Amino acid sequence: MTGKSSFAPNIAAWTPDAADELFRRFVENADESSDQFLVKLKRQISEAGDEAIVLAAELLYLNLLPLSPATIGADRKAVILRTVLSWASTEVTVPAELASATSPGYLKGGVAFLNYRWAQFAFLIRLVRLLTRSPAEERQTALKDPWRFRELAQSVLSDHDGNSRARAQFHVLLFLMFPDVFLPLSVEQNKLSIRDAFADRLAAKSDDVDRDLLAIRRRIEAETGDPFDFYDEPWRSRWDIPRVGNQKGWLVRGANVSGKNMIPVWLDQGFCSISFSEIATDVPPGATRQQIADIVAAAIPDARQRTKDLTTGQLHRFLTEFKPGDLVATLDGDKVYVGRITGDAYRDDAAGPDAARRRPVEWKPTSLSREKLPEEAKAKLKAVMTVTELTKVIAALATDAGLDEQVSDELLTEDETRDVIVPHIAQETADALLMPLDWLQETADLLAAKGQLILYGPPGTGKTYLATKLGEALAGPDRTRLVQFHPSYGYEDFIEGFRPRLENGVLAFDLVPGPLKQAAKLAGEEPDRPLVLIIDEINRANLAKVFGELYYLLEYRGHSITLQYSPDDPFDLPKNVFVIGTMNTVDRSVALVDAAMRRRFAFRALAPNKPPIAGLLDRWLKGNGLPPLAARLLDEINRRLNDPDRAIGPSYLMRKEVGTGHGLRLIWASEILPLLEDQLYGDVDDVEADYGLEVLLAALGETLP
User: Fold this and answer.
1) Could you state, in order of their start, the residue ranges of all structural domains in the chain?
2) pLDDT value at residue 409
3) Which residues of the chain register pLDDT less than 50?
4) The pLDDT of residue 666
C-alpha cells in the first residue's frame, strides 16, 4: 500500500490525511436529506482537496466494480466516477484498463448496493482510515492474511450504526481482496444456506461460516478435479429454491380484520389471508376475473357496481395474480413484515371465515420500521385497500428484511427506490452552448434536487434551445420529450383524456394518455435513468387547469393518487421524470406565477445583460469569425429599453446574415422592430425613431459593412 492513487499516480490519495478529510466531510457530517447520492456527495466533498476527492472516486470504483450490467451498466458506472473526479482541481480520468474492468461484473447487487451506497461508502472510508493509521507491518499483514483482513473489516462493521446496510459491501470486499478464500457472495444468509446444504462435506459445522465454505469448496474441487460455482448446476438446486414466473410484490393488510389482528397468526403459522366473508360461496384458486365477478354479483346483488368491481379485483389478485415466488409485505403499526409466497391459494376454515382464504408465506420473523423506509416505499404502504401491488418498491423492503437473493433481476429493474443517476455536464456541452460550465452544472443540480425547473426571460434568450440541450445532456435525445402549452391546452391534452374514434360508422371514445403519462411509463422502464419532459411556453396555459392532480405529485414523488378519468388505477410520477419549463416574461411576468408553482419549481433567469446570456452573442460572433457590430447593437438597444422583461435576446442575431449590412437590415426591419412595436404599443409613438438601425449605428459611430 504505497499511498499513490491508481487513477493518478502523482496524487497521494491513500493516506491518513485524505481518509481523515473524507471521514470529516462525509461520515461526521452525514447528509440525511432525501436528495440523490451524488447530489449529497457533491455538497459534502466537492470542496475537499484533490487527494480526498480522488480517494472517494477510487472507493466508489471498488463499490461499483463487482456489479453486473443487470444492476448497473458500465456507462452508468462511468458517469458516477467522472462526476466525482470532475470536482478535483486537476483533470483525473479512470485509466482505460480499469474502466474496462467494470464492464462484466459478477454480482446482481440488490437495493443495498443501489440505495444504501452511503452506508457502503462510509464503511469503506472507515476501513481505509483504520488501515492508513495502522503501523506499516500490521497493515502489510492485514493485506496478505485473509483472516486478519476480515477481522479488521469486521471490527469496522461492528463498531458503527447502519452496519446491516454495509454488510453486503463487507462480504464483496472480502472476495475482491481474497478470491481464493472467500466466495463471491454479498448475502450472509446465502453463505449459511450453502454451508447447510453441503454440510455432509464437513466433519462438523463450526461457528465460522467462511472457513466452513472454504473447506467445502476444497473438498468438492478435490472430488471433481475442477473449479466450480455454487450458482451453477447441479449445485445451485441443492440450496436455492427457484422462483416461478414474472415476480411481483404485494401488500396484504391483516391488522384489523373484523376487529382482530391476524398478523401474529400469519407469522406463527406461515400464511396470509383475506376475508370478504360476505362472499360465502367458495371461489376456486386461479379463477378468472369473470368467474369471480359472477360469484360476487350473485353474493351481493344489491351492492353498488363500484363495490362489486373492487371486491372482484381484490379476490382476483389474491387468488389468481399472486404467484409462488412473489414477495409480500404486511403492516402491524410501525412494523413491516416481509415474506415470500411459497404456494398456491387454498382454503382453511380452522381460524374461521375471516382467515379462510389463504396463501402460504415464508415470513422473515424480524420486522422493519416503517418510518425508516425509503420515501417511495412509505408512500406505497399508505394504500388503504386490503391487497395492493408493491412491485415497484418491494425490492427495497426485501433487501432490508434480508431477502436480497429472492429479488429477481426483472423486479430489481422496476424498483423505484433506487437512486437516479444524473450525469454531470461535460465541458463539451458547455463549449457547444458557449455558456459557463459552472452555471450549467448548478442548473442541473437544481433540477436534480427539485425535480422541476423553469427557465424564464424575454424573447430570444434561447430558453427552449437551452432546455432541449440540457435535457439531452442529462437524459439523452431518446429520453427527452417536448410539449408546448397554449391557451386552449388542457388537462385532457397533458395527462389523459377521452378522444373520439370512428369505427364502422359508430363514434366511440378511447381514454388516451397524454405526454405526462407517456413520460411516466417510459421513465418507469429504467428507473435509474433520467427522463426530461420540456414544457415550452409553460405560462401560456391555465396551469391549474392543465396540471390538476399533478400539483400534488410534483411535490410528493412516489405517492399515488387517483386520476379523474382512471379512478381504479392509482398513478404516481416517478422521481426520474424531470420537468423543465420555459417562460416568456413578455407574455406574463414571473411575479404573477401563483404560489403553488413557485413552491414546486426552481427558477433560473435568462437575461441579456446578466450571465450566462451576457456576452453570448459576442462569443458566438467570434467563434464564427464575424465582426462584433451585432453584439454592440444588441447592447445599445437593451440599454435604451432599460427593461429586463422587454429586452431583446441574442438569438435574433445569432445568424450568419448579421455579417452583412443587408442581413442586419432585414433582421431589424422584419423581426426586431415589429417585436418592439408590439411590446411598446401605447408607450412609444415612433419606435423606429428611438430604436431604428440607423439611429443606433449613429449613436455608436458605426456604419454597416
Assistant:
1) 16-186, 249-413, 451-605, 616-700
2) 64
3) 161-162
4) 95
Q: What is the CATH number of domain 249-413?
A: 3.10.590
Assigned architecture for domain 451-605? 3-Layer(aba) Sandwich (3.40)
Convert 660-685 to b/e letters by CB count within 10 Å (16 or more is b).
eeebbeebbeeebbebbeebbeeeee
Query: Of 189, 119, 108, whose CA–CA distance to 161 is shortest?
Result: 119
Q: Three cell numbers at 442?
A: 448548478
At residue 119, the pLDDT reads 87
How much is the pTM?
0.71
What local confidence, expressed as pLDDT, does residue 605 receive?
93
What angle is formed at CA 683 by the lines to CA 678 and CA 684, rounded to 5 degrees?
80
CB 240 within 8 A of CB 405: yes
The pLDDT assigned to 162 comes to 47
Phi-psi region of 402 (alpha: psi -120 to 50; beta: other; left: phi over 0): left
Q: DSSP state, 257? A: B
Q: What is the pLDDT of residue 549?
A: 86
Alpha carbons within 13 A on the beta-carbon side of 366: 8
Q: Give me the amino acid identity at 121.
A: F
H or E element at residue 543: helix 543-547
Give whole-number Cα distances, 315 to 133, 322, 357, in Å: 61, 10, 9
Cell 404516481 belongs to residue: 572
C-alpha cell at 100: 474496462
First-residue to last-residue Cα distance in the chain: 67
Question: Is 191 in contact with 146 (CB distance < 8 Å)?
Answer: no
Q: What is the pLDDT of residue 568?
A: 73
Grid cell, residue 516, equals 405526462
C-alpha cell at 603: 427558477
Compute the chain's Rg from CA coordinates: 31
- Which residue, among 33, 39, 189, 40, has the nearest Cα to 110 in the 3D structure? 189
> Would you say 228 and 220 are in contact if contact means Cβ atoms under 8 Å apart?
yes
DSSP 272: E
Q: Using CB atoms within 10 A of its CB, is residue 162 exposed (0-12), middle (13-18) or buried (19+)? A: middle
Of 595, 607, 573, nearest to 455 by C-alpha is 607
Q: Residues for the chain: how many in total?
A: 705
C-alpha cell at 258: 373484523
* Residue 588: predicted pLDDT: 56
Closest CA to 564 of 585, 548, 586, 582: 548
124-160: string of b/e by CB count within 10 Å (b at 16+)? bbbbbbbbbebeeeebeebeeebeebbebbeebbeee
Q: What is the pLDDT of residue 93?
A: 92
